[in-house]
Amino acid sequence: MPTYRPVPDDRIDEFRAIQQYAFSPAEPTEPVESVDELPRRATLGARRGLFDGEELLCTGTHHWFTTTVRGGEHPLAGLAGVATPPENRRQGLIARLLRESLAEYRERGQYLSALWPFEYAFYRQYGWAQAGTTTIYECDPEALAFAAETERDGEFRRLDADDFETMNPVLAAAGEGVSLWMRRSEEWWRDRVFTGRENDPYIYGVERDGDLRGYVVYHIDADDGRTMRVEECNAIDNAAFLDLLRFLFYHDSQVERVRIRGRADWPLADLADDPRAVDCELVPGGMVRIVDVERALAALDYPTAAEGRVVLSVEDPTAAWNDDSFALAVRDGVATCTRVDEPPDARIAITTLSQLFVGHFSVEHARMAGDLTVESDEVAARLATMFPPRDVVLSEDF
Questions:
Q1: DSSP codes, 164-221
Q2: 327 near 338, Cβ under 8 Å?
Q3: Helix or strand or coil: residue 94?
Q4: Residue ranges of the N-acetyltransferase domain (predicted)?
Q5: Three-state secondary structure call for residue 295
Q6: 328-331: long-range contacts (C-beta < 8 A, 24 or more apart)?
Q7: Average pLDDT, stretch 99-107?
Q8: CB atoms near residue 100 (< 10 Å)
Q9: CA contacts within 13 A on the Cβ side of 295
Q10: What is the band of 28 on the pLDDT scale with cuts at 50, 70, 90?
Q11: What are φ and ψ of residue 334, in 5° steps?
């Protein structure tokens, strides 16, 4: 039987070759003699694999994050780089890798997991579910001219990796109240945001009275140099947000299109003189999964108005420790969650429970579009006070 274990540094070429073939088969892998020769971006994360003896059958990478959920901070395991070479496919290896990964997360106290799927249906069968949406705004830079008509108190300057400490508060403020908004380490700022790519991004900030109030991270398309792709546009307040849009507008003589990855609640179309000049595309977000129901439900911050007890029958065919009934009791925003042998008040799959947990689903939506069934309207109302919907944005790519 295959064994699950870390991929050692001396197997890095083989590990990279499997991932390269899976995700970028047209790009050859340049061999390296040691991990030290890799760009730092490529060294982040914990490498894992399934082995048959010494043969590496498939791969995955784990990232250890801290994220926000309903106003609190929680550990989260990010899963990436799941790949199998063609000769090893259709043998159930990925299912085994995912089960082993969940078991490792649980042992490490990581009761949440997230990933960016190549296919939503594939990972849904193993318990991950869509969490939030992203909006892509695209327009001619002239459509942002309204931002130049506002007060111009903000001053722009180029930022570098040594500015991460002043950028962290901006990032946190921009995600206030949002679930799955990641906290970044210094390592992540330096090796994933500022550097480590083939073409490092431009990063500019806006300051008022010497304080950083917002920043943008963007590329200019290498193909034609006429599209500005904004990966992050984060601001502490509305004035700083308008300053950043003004900065983007100032590129009207340089680019033909501005493409901004942002939040669904941004009022760009309302601010523009012609709303039709701003194209808005809703894109499904990442996927989230509760790894350990008992720990996760006990650790969540609940609304102070949430009171009562509900017995949940949870279906989880991938993580057997979750496939059980749990009594969730909440009082004054504090919860306990224990296994019980009682008739359930509600039945729910791990996918829908994960979406309720972060706020992607309301209880009403979970009953309609998910697979939540309740024994009474009273139970539904109790769950609704415990799990009101929230904005959800998986803010980090990995």
A1: HHHHHHHHHHHTTT-BT-EEPPHHHIIIIIISSSSSPPEEEEEEETTEEEEEEEEEE-
A2: yes
A3: helix
A4: 2-151
A5: helix
A6: 328/297, 328/386, 330/302, 330/306, 330/386, 331/307
A7: 98
A8: 17
A9: 16
A10: confident
A11: -110, 140
Torsion angle defined by CA atoms of residues 168, 174, 179 and 180, in that order, rounded to the nearest 10 degrees: -40
From CA 159, how far away is CA 140, in angstroms rounded?
25
Question: Residue 214 and residue 237: Cα distance in Å, rounded?
Answer: 8
Amino acid at 303: P
The count of other CB atoms within 10 Å of the CB of residue 87 is 7
The CA-based angle 369-373-374, given to 5 degrees, is 135
What secondary structure does DSSP assign to 10-65, as a single string? GGHHHHHHHHHHHH-TTSPPPP-SSGGGS-HHHH-SEEEEEEETTEEEEEEEEEEE
What pLDDT, in 10s, does the model give residues 183-227? 999 999 999 999 866 678 999 999 999 999 999 999 998 777 799
**Site of tokens 């390592």:** 187
User: Distance between CA atoms of 226 and 212, rounded to whole angstroms?
Assistant: 28
Give the mean pLDDT of 372-393. 97
pLDDT per position as a tens digit, 128-149: 999 999 999 999 999 999 999 8
- As a whole number, mean pLDDT of residues 265-277 equals 94
